[in-house]
Design brief:
The complex is a heterodimer of chains A (544) and B (366).
Chain A (H helix, E strand, L loop, with lengths): L6 H10 L9 H5 L3 H29 L10 H36 L7 H20 L27 H28 L12 H32 L13 H18 L2 H15 L6 H14 L15 H13 L1 H15 L8 H24 L1 H7 L3 H31 L5 H28 L13 H30 L34 H9 L5
Helix pairs in contact in A: 3-4, 3-5, 3-17, 4-6, 4-15, 5-6, 6-7, 7-8, 7-9, 7-10, 9-12, 9-13, 9-15, 10-12, 12-13, 13-15, 13-16, 15-16, 16-17
Chain B lengths: L1 H9 L15 H34 L15 H30 L6 E8 L2 E6 L4 E5 L5 H4 L17 E4 L4 E7 L4 E5 L4 E5 L5 E5 L5 E6 L12 E7 L1 H20 L7 H15 L1 H4 L17 H4 L2 H10 L15 H13 L11 H11 L1
Parallel strand pairs in B: 1-5, 4-10
Antiparallel strand pairs in B: 1-2, 2-3, 5-8, 6-7, 9-10
Helix pairs in contact in B: 2-3, 6-10, 10-11
The chains are: A mainly alpha (544), B alpha+beta (366).
Amino acid sequence: MSAVIDPHHAGHGLTDHHHGPAKGLMRWVLTTNHKDIGTMYLWFSFAMFLLGGSMAMVIRAELFQPGLQIVQPEFFNQMTTMHGLIMVFGAVMPAFVGLANWMVPMMIGAPDMALPRMNNFSFWLLPASFGLLVSTLFMEGGGPNFGWTFYAPLSTTYAPESVTFFIFAIHLLGISSIMGAINVVATILNLRAPGMTLMKMPLFVWTWLITGFLLIAVMPVLAGCVTMMLMDIHFGTSFFSAAGGGDPVLFQHVFWFFGHPEVYIMILPAFGAVSSIIPAFARKPLFGYTSMVYATASIAFLSFIVWAHHMFTVGIPLTGELFFMYATMLIAVPTGVKVFNWASTMWQGSMTFETPMLFSVAFVILFTIGGFSGLMLAIAPADFQYHDTYFVVAHFHYVLVPGAIFGIFASAYYWLPKWTGHMYDETLGKLHFWMSFVGMNLAFFPMHFVGLAGMPRRIPDYNMMFANFNMVSSIGAFMFGATQLLFLFIVIKCIRGGTPAAAKPWDGAEGLEWTVPSPAPYHTFSTPPDMATLEAHRTDPRHD
Amino acid sequence: MSLALWLVFSSAHASWTVNMAPGVTEVSRSVFDLHMTIFWICVVIGVLVFGAMFWSMLVHRRSRGQQPANFHESTTVEILWTVVPLAILVVMAVPATKTLIDIYDTTESELDIQVTGYQWKWHYKYLGQDVEFFSNLTTPRAQINNREAKGEHYLLEVDEPLVVPVGTKVRFLITAADVIHSWWVPALAVKKDAIPGFVNESWTRIEEPGIYRGQCTELCGKDHGFMPVVVEAKSKEDFAAWLAERKTAAAAEKELTSKEWTLDELMARGEKSYLTNCGACHQPTGEGLPPMFPALKGSAIATGPAEGHIDIVINGKPGTSMAAFGKQLSEVDIAAIITYERNAWGNSVGDMVTPQDILAFKKAQE
């Protein structure tokens, strides 16, 4: 299974690797180049991030004060639902697929993804899917209003008519994710350069390999879930309707069997990226590489046996409750190992704090805070008080915003020189970081407080006892939201010009991607790299 | 003590509250203790790990001339930081398991109350007592739309609170009639999903008389944020008196069915019942929120033959949000609402549907 390169293929690459991208719009429509497709994924993801973010702004504007001011409850529910769906499926997941497209082939010394045409199709399904999803907002009766978790029967019998479009959109993006994951797994298992054994792969490749398997395992479950909804709505079945002998709780079991691995799908690639970035700026090898790999695998395994911790209040039997409580608490162990490893990597390093490092350090600290609240939520009796309150909202935003999103920002700043051939503006990058850091904490930390004080999630209006912290949250959210336009400016500025970047702009960085010029040529590693040279390079004292 | 706590929490200063309240039952206090224990464990771990990281970030910088070390593994340390957290988790799991077993013990209850979630109100039925009623939000629309100053219990006030005796193990049998809801009273640490077709059990034993407020905590549609839970705990004597009074009132209400009603009387009662039971969807103006909630003003059903109108109110419309109100409301209320809908907002059928008509319709259906 290890790195086998078809000699014919390699030869082919040698003869015509000088040709560049096609001209015009059709380059992007027809491209099979992993860098082009990666770029499209990243831009699409950022567009969705701004769209989902503007919905969050609507939510926070309504929650700025008690009373209904800006929107009515039925539209508020559409905003919370679409914000969740767009951020999860449109922003975070495509961003990681984009990073995988760009970086995995370059990290393992492969000329492209294993299945380039399917790669093109995976991407182009996404605009179709989200076009469909967003169009429901303009339909009679409005878009999905049943939460991103779309529990039946609210999403079946009681759903707006546009739910059918929502189901079709989920099917499309599910197919896209599955194909993307198959592609990444096939690439990693088959196209590694000779000598790049599994245990020599960068952790980003490892975490994506594991993420790929998670995706292949659970996206079909989501497809099954929405198909059952479709049958219930249009074809007279009663999978989720008690009146017809079905079971509304079945929906939640099926959904969370997908949903829990899904949350790790959104964080594992960030773990991998940060595991490359922290050693680069600490100028010290990653501590505990092997244990990082095993911890990632353990987290992935555990993610399949903890789903019912989202359902502690549905009335599952005591033994079930205990099992899921213990299994969930166990996740703290491998996650702890990772955090300790990152901290030990920093320990006695020679650190500098460029923007990627700032985002990575904030990632470790703030993700850990999200982990702590996760541990609290694992305690089933305490969860009866936390469940479906703003405490949960605070928890998952702490693991997703400074977790997944900061991981993506750190990756973007780290690899932008490689992508564009220019250094980004460091001052603006740092400003972006600090504004995001302050805004995000201001937005999400007070949510712990209102949650503990008793504010349920997904409500458009609330009692005055929650007013002060909600106002603080809204101010923080506006700040965080506005700051992301700065990121757009920084990226455009970096693409258009700036200090030319060296092949390896970070003196402590490791990996094959830094052995090719910046910007990376349209085709890289048409001939597999010589791992022996790289090994020699690794043993060089870095701080010479 | 607990009452004092609640007073503190509901006063103006309480809007900066940062923590959970210990609540007013043994269970809620043990849940609070679990919450605080796990919180402090997290704080200690956080201080250690973040402390080390910040120390490292301040000291181990290139700008301070630090040369990087080259260590990258240590089996001993790695085993240690796998085993120690595991041990902490085991320590944490023991009290959590104990509390959970206690919460799941719903046996030997002294009073059983069936709690049913509806879009967007709660229904309480005292099993074996012949007392049942709906509990609706009473916060006026004008407060929600910022035309009036908001009251202290804004969105947390109802017409009929659930009344329970103190010092009594009360068992809740929780279910729902339409979508999933969740019945939550923070001070009791009781949160249980109300699921159509299922009956979940939960229980509480309140020690002090008082009023405890909570909300629905499972997204249940448009007015999810507007279906509070209010529990009033009374002393055993007061509770017995209240229950007796409710039984008498229920009997009197039944007699109203056979009373001869005038159009004006029905319209007056109809307007009130309509606003409580129908107004959320069909709107006080009768204009609805199409297409999810159709207008009644000028609608074919509300201005057509009475039978069709009675049928949809009693049996609902399967596959839509229109619930079957036949078992939810009394004959008097159904008759009054239908009469009101046929003669309000410019609808002017002019006819009158009486409680006897409703009774006859129901009999014919059987």
